[in-house]
Amino acid sequence: MTDEEAGEFYYAHRNDPDLTGEPVELETPGRLSRVISVRFSPDEAAVVEQRARETGLTMSAYVRQAALGRPVLSALDPASMERLAELVARTVQKSHLHELLSTVADDVAHIRGKIGA
């Protein structure tokens, strides 16, 4: 089976529980409804903006993580992304999509835990 045929097969059967494995429960954060204003000097604001940009977070998410004492790590953690890319390549080569989905779910949970989402 070629990669293209495998892709078409798995797309056509994407909702087949025998191929996709067990459903994974994901926690979604509650609605953020309370606004708290914070003032920064222009220099401080520039630093906060730069750090938020470097982590791939919005300024609100960055400040929220920092204020709550959660680790403020990049949403695009290079080590996790490299590991994920290797696993995707290896899994696609073997056409074991259920293994890929399980690994992706684990990595997503890992990354979400690191960024406190």
What's a quick, concise take on this entry?
The protein is mainly alpha-helical. Helices cover 62% and strands 0% of the residues.
Tell me about this structure.
With 117 residues, this protein is an all-alpha fold. It is 62% helix and 0% strand. The chain has six helices and no strands. It has helices at residues 3-12, 17-20, 42-55, 59-67, 78-94, 97-115. Helix 3 packs across helix 4 (59-67) and helix 5 runs antiparallel to helix 6.
- State the major sheet: none
Unreliable runs? none
The total count of strands amounts to 0
Q: How would you classify the helix and strand content by structural class?
A: mainly alpha
Strand content: under 5%
Summed up, the helix count is: 6
Order of SSEs = HHHHHH
Helix % is 55-70%
The radius of gyration over CA amounts to 19 Å
Topology:
Blueprint: H1 3-12, H2 17-20, H3 42-55, H4 59-67, H5 78-94, H6 97-115
Helix pairs in contact: 3-4, 5-6
